Amino acid sequence: MNYLLAIDQGTSSTRAMIYSVSGELVASSQYPLTQYYPQTGWVEHDPEEIWQKTITAMRDVVAKIPTDQIVCCGVTNQRETTVIWDKRTGKCLAPAIVWQDRRTAEYCHSLAIDESMIQEKTGLIPDPYFSATKLKWLLENHSEAKELADKGDLAFGTIDSFLIWRLTTEHLHLTDVTNASRTMLFNIKKEQWDFDLLDYFKIPESVLPKVCASDSCFGVIDKQWLGTELPITGVAGDQQAALIGQGCFKTGMVKATFGTGAFLLLNTGSKPVLSQHKLLTTIAYKIQGKTVYGLEGSIYHAGTTVRWLRDSMKLITSSDETEALASSLKGNEGVYLVSAFTGLGAPHWLSSPGASMVGLSLTTNRAHFARAALEGVCYQTREVCFCMREDSQLDLSLLRVDGGMVVNRWFLQFLADQCQLEIQKPKDIESTAKGAAILAALGYGIFNSLDELHAIWDVEQAFKPQRSLDQVEQDYRGWGQALQRIKE
Fold first, then answer.
1. Domains of the chain, start order
2. Residue 281 phi/psi, 5° resolution?
3. Kind of pairing between the strands at 13-20 and 3-9
4. Which GO terms describe its molecular function (predicted)?
């Protein structure tokens, strides 16, 4: 029996999982991560905590099966999150700046004049979300980092690069095309670091990792970490890994992951489609020499909004309660939550933090808060789906979903109604880790083609639109009015 190891380093937690080559989950270990908020709009992680919990999770699952039966490892990660370290010692020089961080918002506003140039090269629009301005900020605000960069001794990486460097015997400094395409420094058409952009952001080439195809060999995990050597044969950013895990290999297929944030990714095929609605054009994957592009809409807050109800507002004791609370109401009674805690993502791209509750009355209770939190994610998903249709001119008929929020059936039904799509929930909702395992298997040569992977994906439940269109549109109009208030 052969097994696949997957590392899933996310925003809220770090996980390691063992899969069989047929895609069945065999073992799992997960550890929560601490998020730090040193200032309004700032979000940080401790890279050493990420490293330690990754190693611990890996050891947990590897201990459950014979190590000689694990053939390879795949890595997937929170994207855009930026780490810098000393190439000589491996010491991290600063906290990791998380993708949600907005500290460079003012600088990004100043880049508006060059937005079309940046989008043409990278598929992205100037925003603090991406790694380029985070790295620029670190170089400008950490004197040691600047000194090391001048000497060629500084390494920058997204989390995949950081883990590969730590795990491999040779301390390889590598990334894959999907993660590179999220830095705002990578030319997605030429598939290389863009020297014009490096000069534009004053970033030396020496700090950057080498970019590889998603199914490349990214080195071998040193024996000291797991007691055995193990090749890393697949790497992809978390949303691209989820697209792979959901089996969305055909043009026009789209998936949505509802985790910390919510992320929709549409397979647009072999040519990049530049968005007219401020969606992101990204590399979906590069497998067996073929590059496939995608259109992505990113919603900053999904699971974090439910966590806010639980941890900060103390309105619920567990996320599971939101399903019963939301379904206890016949309607939303005009209560809306616009979860712009660190701004809004696609297609609005509001950098200023400022969430808003609208429509409160003396009869408003925690059920209204729970329902408004879930509804808000659905309305934003609907907006992204509309933009995807307009930009791609593709007919979207179904949406495959995954992530922690999709255990909530009320949420999925409301989503189907708002998006007017069939929503397909797979048996394994952790598509991100599964995608990393599948990618590793492809890189290792266990599968010869993508066609062999269709049998790995199974639908558990489908949700089709049920509510009247009049009620659906009435609810959506209320959302639009609530949204307009924070834009004024």
1. 3-238 (3.30.420.40), 247-487 (3.30.420.40)
2. -95, 130
3. antiparallel
4. ATP binding; glycerol kinase activity
